[in-house]
Structures
1.
Amino acid sequence: MPARDTPPGECPQCWQHAHDRRAHRGLRPREDCPQCVDHMDNGCPYIVPKKPSRWW
C-alpha cells in the first residue's frame, strides 16, 4: 500500500496507523499497538493544522 500524505486537519500518526497496514504488521493477533494505546490515553501530541476555510 503506497504511503499517503496526511490531509489537513488530521494527526499524522492517527492517519498513518488507520490507513497503512505496515504500521501494525509486527503485532500478534489481538495485541495492542503501544503507540496507539499511548495516543488514546494522552491524546494527539501534534498541533493539527485546520483546513483553510473556503466560505468567502
2.
Amino acid sequence: NLLFTCLSRDIVESIVSGVAEGLFTMLIIVAVLFAIVGVAIGITYFVQKKNGVLNSYEAFSDIMTEDEFERWQKRKNKIK
C-alpha cells in the first residue's frame, strides 16, 4: 500500500506542478513493477513446465474441456 500511496502522490505532483522529474520517477516505478510481475510469472511458468504440471488436464481445466485438452496434446506431440 505504501508503494501505491507514493505512486499516486507522484502522479498528483507531476500533474499539478508539471515537473518532469515526478513523471519520470513515476514511469520508472511502473516499469519496475511490471518487470517484477513479469519475472514472477516467468519463474512460475518455467517451474511448472519443468515439473510437468503443464502436461496435465488440471492445469487447463478452467479454459478447455478434457476432450479439447486431449486433442491439443495429440497435436502438440505430433508436431514434436
3.
Amino acid sequence: MKEIRFLAISLLVALSMGFSSCATNIPISLLCNEQHIEIYINEEYVGRGLINYVVPKGTDYINVSCKENGIEIYNRNYYVKGKKNQLFELDIPKDYRYSSGQQIKPQIK
C-alpha cells in the first residue's frame, strides 16, 4: 500500500513539473543599431540599442514599436513562442512615409 501511495505521489510531482515547464518565461534580445530610436514592447518603453527582455509566460506574440522624437516610425508583431534567447534585429526604414505623404528623415544626434 505504501508503494502505491509513493508511486502516485511521484507521478503527481512529475506531471506537475512537466506542465509547469511548458509555460515559462522566455528571455529574448532586440537590437536596433540606431541608438536614438526608442523601443517599446506592448506600449511600454524598454530602452534603446540592445535590449534584453523577458517575455511573460503564456505570451506567444509581442508588439514592438519604435519612436523617434515622439513619432512612431516602426510597428511589428513578433512571434516569440519557442524563441528562447533569440536575437531580433529591428530593421528601421531610412525614409519614413505616412499616409499623409509627409516624409520624415531620421535625425542623428
4.
Amino acid sequence: MSKPDYIRHQLSEDQITIDWFFTTQKAGHHLRQSVLIGIGWLMCLVPTSSTIALYLTRETRIPINRVAFKQLLQRTNYVFLLYIIAFAAFFISLYLMNKVKQHRIRKGVVKTFDEQRLQKRLAWA
C-alpha cells in the first residue's frame, strides 16, 4: 500500500516521541523527570539487590541465637515497612497530582498542549 499524495515528508515514531526527556524545556523540567526516573530505579533496585544479597549469602553459617534472630527479623521488617510506606506515599502523591492537573484542565486553567511544539509538528506533517 502506497502513501497518499498529500504526505510530503514521513517521520519515524522516534523522531516524534523521543522528546519527552530531551526537549528544549527549562532545567526544572529535566530535574523533575530525572528525579522520577531515579525513584523508579530505586524502587526497582532495592528489592532486587536485597534478594540477590540474600541469595548469595544463603550458605553462610551465622551463629545466631533466638533473641538475635528476632531482632534481625524486626529490623528487616521495619526497613521493608518503611520502603513500602515510601513507595505508597510516592504513588499516592503522583495520583493526587494527576487528579489536580485533570481538574485544572477541565476548568480551562491549563493548556493540554504546547503551541510551539504543535506548530512544529504541523509544519513537519
